[in-house]
Amino acid sequence: MNRTLILLIFHLILMPDGLNSQVLCKRSTILMGGRFEFTLVDKDSISGQKNINELIAEVSRIENLISDWIPASQVSQVNQNAGIRPVKVDQEVFQLTSRAIRLSEITKGGFDISFAAMDRIWRFDGSMTAMPSPEAIKNSVAKVGYKDIILDSLNQTIFLKKIGMKIGFGALGEGYAADRCKTLMLKKGINSGIVNATGDMSTWGLQPDGQRWKIGITNPFKRNKLIKVLSLSDQSVTTSGSYEKYVEFDGVRYSHIINPATGYPARGLTSVTVVGPGAEMCNGLSTSIMVLGQKEGLRLLSLFPEYSCLMITDKGKVIRSRSFNKHFSKSKELK
């Protein structure tokens, strides 16, 4: 999934000198297979970098719990025991899995954490010369199905009923990590910051100059321009897009975002930006809406009134949910 359509915009780094002066501390690093950028408003750079160290440690902790490419992680243990036995996991992993299954149920499989078991028959590296057969597409999702994930709340176990099944948090994990970072810093009294978890952004408080955080949404058809500039505080934002990875057959464009219920690539939308209280849910909703399309996507969003979205169709049409306009910056938009 492409989540590089948003740009953080800074206007001021330092407050005026004085007892209440604050600095903007920043650092970026690779975590969970992607780039994380941490920005904190702190009393000084030493304190800020120390707190960023804590955030990096927190994301690393989460990664070692839920990353399916780390053999010793709890999620990997669940996958390795698919069709064999239930695996006891930490409450944190159990609850994250439970929320993912709930979203899978609401979207009727448009979102599915067992998508990790799908056969990779679609290739978006230029090597595909023909459509996969309908039979191959059907077989590719044979081991995908959230209904075959058994949660035992009493024993706190997860069991995948079919051998070869897998779960993965590629569409929720980074957003969850961003939310955790925000919670951790607020508990420490760091009242302003932003975490960019490979495109899943969680903001709180204000910039040192008192302005909200400014986040630009890139035009997927004109990468050097912005569609809109968002003005956020205590909100999260995620953009899912398919504009970079796709194939075309007989004049039809097929994106790299696959519908886990059918095995066919999503069509109709080029990008979806979701704004709301939590990055984890923004992530899940943006992914789901890309798969479900405009009509069903808006219907899904209506179930979550605290969240709003901006969709860009494959033909370049911009569609907003009713409450999305409130997030626009009143300042002049960048071009």
Q: If you compute it from the alpha carbons, what radius of gyration comes out, rounded to the nearest whole angstrom?
A: 20 Å
* Alpha-carbon distance between the two ends: 25 Å
| Total of helices | 7
Give the strand order, joined by hyphens, for the main sheet: 2-3-7-8-11-14-15-16
Shape: globular
Low-confidence stretches: 10-19, 331-335
Secondary structure class reads alpha+beta
Could you walk me through the main structural features you see in this protein, from its secondary elements to its overall organization?
With 335 residues, the chain is an alpha+beta fold. Helices cover 27% and strands 27% of the residues. It has seven helices and 16 strands. It has helices at 45-66, 74-80, 91-106, 134-140, 173-187, 279-292, 294-301; strands spanning 6-9, 23-31, 34-42, 87-88, 149-152, 157-160, 193-197, 200-204, 213-219, 222-232, 236-241, 246-249, 252-255, 269-276, 308-313, 318-320. The protein has an eight-stranded antiparallel β-sheet. It has a three-stranded antiparallel β-sheet with strand order 1-9-10, with no helix packed on it. It has a three-stranded antiparallel β-sheet with strand order 4-6-5, with helices on one face. A hairpin with a 2-residue loop joins strand 12 and strand 13 (252-255). The longest helix is centred in the first third of the chain and has 22 residues, at 45-66.
